[in-house]
Write a structure and sequence with these properties.
By secondary structure, the chain is α+β, with helices and mostly antiparallel strands. The chain contains 3 helices and 3 strands, in the order H-E-E-H-H-E. A hairpin with a 2-residue loop joins strand 1 and strand 2. The protein starts with a helix and ends with a strand. One of its GO terms (molecular function) is RNA binding.
C-alpha cells in the first residue's frame, strides 16, 4: 500500500525523495503518516480537501482487499 501512496502523491510534489512515510499498525488497522514539504502540501490537500479525500478513498479500497482498514494523515515538514 505504500507503493500506492507514492504513486498517487508523486505527480503532486516536486521531489518525491523528500516525502517520508511512517506506518502505525494495530491488528487490522494501518495508519500512514505522510511527511510532505511545506511547498507541496497544498497540492496534496487540494481544493476543499478533495485530493486527500480521494487518496484516502483509494487507500481504503485497497485495504479492503486485504481485510484491513487504512487511513492517511499529512504532516508538514
Amino acid at each position: 500500500m505504500e507503493k500506492l501512496l507514492l504513486l498517487l502523491v508523486e505527480p503532486l510534489v516536486k521531489d518525491i525523495k523528500k516525502i517520508k512515510i511512517e506506518k502505525e499498525r494495530e491488528e487490522n488497522r494501518i495508519k500512514y503518516i505522510l511527511q510532505i514539504p511545506k511547498g507541496d502540501i497544498a497540492k496534496v490537500i487540494g481544493k476543499s480537501g478533495k485530493m486527500i479525500k480521494a487518496i484516502n478513498s483509494l487507500l481504503k479500497l485497497r485495504a479492503i482487499k486485504e481485510n484491513m482498514y487504512a487511513s492517511c494523515e499529512l504532516q508538514e515538514v
